[in-house]
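I keep forgetting this: the sequence line spells out the residues, with the fold written below as integer tokens. I include a record here:
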Amino acid sequence: MGVIQLQNVTKEFGSLRVLEGISVEFHSGRITGIVGPNGAGKTTLFRMISGELEPDLGTVTKSRDLKVGYLTQDPTLRSDATLHDEVLSVFEGLLAIEHRMHKLSEEIAHQHDSDGVGELMEQYDKLNAQFEAAGGYAHEQRLEEVLGGLGFSIEDRSLPVSALSGGQKCRAALAKLLLQDHNMLLLDEPTNHLDIDAVRWLEKFLAGHHGGAVIISHDRYLMDRVTNRIVEVDKRRVTSYSGNYSTYIDTKERNRLSAERQFSKDKDFIEKERAFINKHMAGQRTKEAQGRQKRLERRLRNGEFVTEVESKRRDVKFEFDEGSTLGGEILRVEELAKSFDGKDLFRDMGFLIEAGQRLGITGPNGTGKSTLIKILQGMVPASGGTFEWNPKVSVAYFAQEAKALTGSHTLVKEMQIIRPGITEGEARSHLARFNFIGDDAFKPLHVLSGGEQSRIRLIKLLEENPNVLVLDEPTNHLDIPSCEALEAALAEFPGTIIAVSHDRYFLDRLISHLLVIRPEGHRLIRGNYSEYAELLEKRPSIWEKDAKPASSQDASNKKSQSNKSSAKAKKKADARFDVMPVEKIEELVMDCEGKLAAANERFASPEVYRDSEKVAQLRQTIDGLREELAELEDVWHERIENA
């Protein structure tokens, strides 16, 4: 097992000491999450492990057999190459072997009757064995799987790197890293620029990865799913915790409470000792007092007492007036549709939102999530269908692309503008609920980061006392403490929430219903993201081509329920299966699975791989088999459920 070891490492930038005397190990058989405030030194840690930076003091060592791959937040790619060719370049060694094999094949064909052909064939066999051992014939298939998993379309493959967006370049760099033979991955914010499907794919990749990984991420759900250890970087030190992110939070809180109790005991002891010393230093018990003073000072120098504890973050409490509550039906949506240039984003969408409901809207990029809430805000026209708000609603809308806050006045002044009449102390106390602590409260608006601007905008929204909040990616740009502050505030909100989000942890903590929009259709799920993910694991075929539209059974929308029944009837229209027993359908499923597995194996055949036309035909065959399998599985599940 490979290991990365940092011993007594200190790193400074000018007069700023970022890390001081830290010692930590990372093993190739584990996935470790790195957490801590922005600027605490997490990326600096990675740069020292990768060799980009040298420690000022201490050592960084790696096992000889450890191959470390590092994903930076600012990757470098060849701008003149296509996406496909740039990612394919990670197989440069394999491609060189393949090129040599082609050359030998030509020589063998040219000299087939000569005496030297035997030696050429022997060379070819050795190269072929080497090529196969390295998975050579499957490398194109692996490339396709990784690019597809990270959200690149077939059309994207031929784009020049120079035409890619910043987010696409980061995904391309991640694809290159995952295709290389590293047994330790350093991933700095790998889920930035990934949509919810791509993050789920990355989780599965990491779960099957043969080596280890160290991950810096604000994605708490990812950290819960894949890590088995958390290392916290804060105040120039590192602290290691066993378990995933949720276990780390629980353990840290228990440790804080324990330290708080010990701090109280130690404080009482120190005060009593000092009182005794002061009382008897000049009396008959001077020697005893002097001895106690020496012992106390020695123990303080040695750090035997808890002299400070981490303060618990202030609970977020917002007072909402009666205007924040509204009963009955809030929003009714029926047969809503939106198209651009003849292409449907969504259609036949129907649901009903009741007062107090928390609806999360999620799905891959480009499926119309933000467009939907803009339609509901009257900012974009629908292509069909209707929606109707309760006439008494008061909606506050948080947009992704809101204009930056400007002005030279401070946050304290902005808070006093939002809440006229409050004192500076009250303004600072209110700002602290969203982690604007200390001197942060006196920053001018125009210097705020994207995350800080988002927090101020959210405070302003909540101060409007609406009864409906419509939020478009509210946790974008927020660090973990700010996300938790937002979630605590929204948990107190008594009204209705509609939130578009890729943040699965946020969706788990706050959402009661989930509207999932995908290219294949849309579904309304009663429950949070984890409940949807569990459903997806049990029935992966629910998003095949014949996926039913969003069920509005939970919302008691009779018209949409009728549409659902109609869709179900159409789905059963294929009479082939009506007379088949369930056992026969099960046989067809197994037969189709076998054909699909055999077709996938054919990708490794040189005769297919070397012929682009055959590759295209094989892909078409596989797509057809997948559609057939999805249809069979749906019929089988329906028969089992209705049995």
Summary: Residues 572-642 form one domain.
